[in-house]
Amino acid sequence: MTQFQLYFELGLEHILDINGYDHIIFVIALCAIYLLHDWKRILVLITAFTIGHSITLALSTLKIVNFDSAVIEFLIPVTIFLTAMSNILKKEKMFSTKLIQTNYLLALFFGLIHGLGFSNYLKSLLGQSKGIVSQLFAFNIGLEVGQIIVVAIFLLISFIFVDLIGVQRRDWRIVISSAVAGIALMLMFETKFW
Q1: Is the pTM of this model over 0.90?
Q2: Is 68 left (phi over 0), alpha (psi -120 to 50) or beta?
Q3: Do 79 and 113 contact (CB within 8 A), yes or no?
Q4: Mind listing the pLDDT tens digit for each residue in 94-150?
Q5: What per-residue string of b and e applies to 162-191 under the rule 16 or more CB within 10 Å gives b?
Q6: Are 143 and 17 in contact (CB under 8 A)?
């Protein structure tokens, strides 16, 4: 197995690991306002998130920036909660191009926070290695592919419920976002930040 394959698989497994479900529910919160025909918008949204967390993941792994991990572990569920609550509070007529662009900026910004959360994991894998560019790249590609898998599964489930069964899009968005917000609240209270 090449080094690229190793770090790609580590990134992929990191996202798809059910024990690290905070990232999965954040991706679901990002996608909750979209349906299958919005797949291009979602791809841009997920990529904006990946760019955000790639930046801080690299900066933190290279020890250029350093944040208290307890604060980051608290802020990650806060970003999930804020995203879910934003989905709940949106009116259907608010889904304009300007709102979509705001979602991209929020995904990028929240990605910066999530990248700091990944950095401790990646630092432990890399140890004292100096040349980490290819490992970071492979790890981030694995993360992106994992996110796309989560998005594809979520969009398929959304298609079944909204397009085939006939659940109202608004109801679907509110139920999914409410569930995510509830889980995020539990995660916030479980952190050692308090």
Answers
A1: no
A2: beta
A3: yes
A4: 555 555 677 888 899 999 998 888 777 777 776 666 667 888 889 889 999 999 999
A5: beeeeeebeebbbebbeebbebbeebbeeb
A6: no
